[in-house]
Design a protein that fits this description.
It is built from seven helices and 28 strands. The chain has about 425 residues and is α+β, with helices and mostly antiparallel strands.
Length: about 425
């Protein structure tokens, strides 16, 4: 069997070790072949922030739908103030006023102006607006003395200047930002089709675990994975379902793996120890396509299917759990939610401050700091040192065919922040 092939049969994998490990590349290929974007659902505009459009949206109207003033001032006929200056003021009669939301009741004729506010509709006859800063009004407001000239169209917003009817506002696949919602509202869209959010069930197993946020006591440790995974899932567009910490019992795990979900994440019990039941249960209920991956950390990770549910086995050690999530489970969730599959982190390229050591035959997920514009590998070992990820600026991926990278070489860094 090649290192990229699924493990066959329904054998109990506990205490048997990993004879061979699947490459990261092959595991990613399996993920990409196993997922497709979820169908669309209708949501209100108020609930659309961060959601991914399932269909392109075109504007049904022009915005603005009328010519409007872009300044507080006076609507004028531009030719009436040609040549006006501080030394050559031109006096005009004020014929009325128009406020935002009102329909102008008076037209502008030669020698007259109409006082107008920003956003108000331009009256007939006027072709420009003179700002209040460029004129002097009489004490009774009946006349203005204009001190500057303006060309036709100055400070006037035209019909469709912001959005023209029939224009594609956003294409399918766009993740909606707050300003996008404002634009959609401005054209009168209140309901829209978005990609459904995947329901992700988190199963955290371990007799040694205490609930998240509980002070550790004796030989028991506190669950760090469920709050971390919940935040990652929500970041990636999923809806979290967490039934609480589960005991290391095959029957309980079997029952929980059959509950409704689009994706199930099992954190802990994924390896080959005596109490690592999850791999064998997945094999019994469905297909354990991959178990054991040539990477550090996260080598005990696995993935498979139970009926129409994807199942990801994530190591219980928190750094391994984070790494396996971002590489594999998160990649699947992001694609189901209509988001890009790639890491959702900004990327930069900087030189290494010192050598980054790795081993041929595995992918390394190396946590690093950025200090004075250089990449400093963190001197840590072990997949349980979660604080290494909080001290780190991000991580560098060392390919499996590399023994590392020398000082001074430029590397790609994915930034946590």
């Amino acid at each position: 069997m090649s290192s990229d092939s699924p493990a066959p049969g329904n054998a109990d994998v506990r205490m048997s070790g990993f004879a061979q490990r699947t490459t990261v590349e092959a595991a990613i290929q399996w993920v990409d072949k196993s997922v497709q974007q979820l169908p669309a659902s209708e949501v209100s505009l108020a609930d659309a922030a961060g959601r991914v459009l399932a269909e392109s949206i075109t504007s049904p109207v022009n915005v603005p739908g009328f010519t409007r003033s872009m300044m507080d001032g006076y609507a004028i006929i531009a030719s009436d103030v040609a040549g006006a200056s501080m030394y050559n003021p031109i006096s005009l009669q004020v014929a009325g006023e128009v406020l935002p939301g009102q329909a102008p009741s008076t037209a502008v004729t030669s020698g007259k102006v109409i006082r107008i506010m920003t956003g108000a509709a331009m009256p007939d006859g006027a072709d420009a607006v003179i700002p209040v800063e460029q004129l002097q009004a009489s004490d009774d407001g009946s006349q203005v003395e204009v001190h500057a000239d303006v060309p036709p169209g100055k400070h006037v917003g035209q019909v469709g200047e912001d959005v023209s009817a029939g224009t594609t506002l956003f294409s399918a696949g766009r993740q909606l930002r707050p300003q996008d919602l404002g634009l959609l509202s401005s054209v009168g869209i209140s309901q829209l089709a978005v990609v459904s959010q995947p329901r992700v069930r988190i199963l955290v197993t371990g007799n040694e675990l205490l609930p998240a946020g509980t002070p550790p006591a004796g030989q028991q440790i506190t669950d760090a994975n469920s709050p971390m995974l919940s935040a990652l899932i929500e970041r990636d567009g999923g809806i979290v379902d967490f039934p609480g910490i589960l005991p290391d019992q095959a029957e309980t795990i079997e029952d929980q793996l059959q509950q409704p979900a689009d994706i199930i994440l099992v954190a802990g019990g994924s390896s080959v120890g005596q109490e690592d039941y999850a791999p064998s249960v997945v094999r019994q209920l469905g297909e354990l396509a991959i178990h054991g991956i040539a990477m550090r950390p996260s080598s005990p990770a696995g993935m498979g299917t139970i009926e129409d549910r994807l199942v990801f086995l994530l190591p219980g050690n928190p750094v391994s759990c984070l790494c396996a999530y971002d590489f594999f489970a998160g990649r699947a969730i992001r694609q189901l939610a209509g988001l890009p599959a790639e890491f959702p982190y900004q990327q930069c390229r900087l030189p290494l401050a010192r050598k980054l050591v790795s081993a041929v035959g595995r992918v390394d997920y190396a946590r690093v700091e950025i200090i004075d514009g250089q990449v400093e590998p963190l001197a840590i070992s072990g997949a349980s040192i979660l604080s290494s990820t909080t001290r780190a600026s991000g991580y560098v991926i060392v390919p499996q065919d590399s023994e590392g990278m020398p000082a001074g070489s430029e590397v790609d860094v994915w930034l946590y922040g």
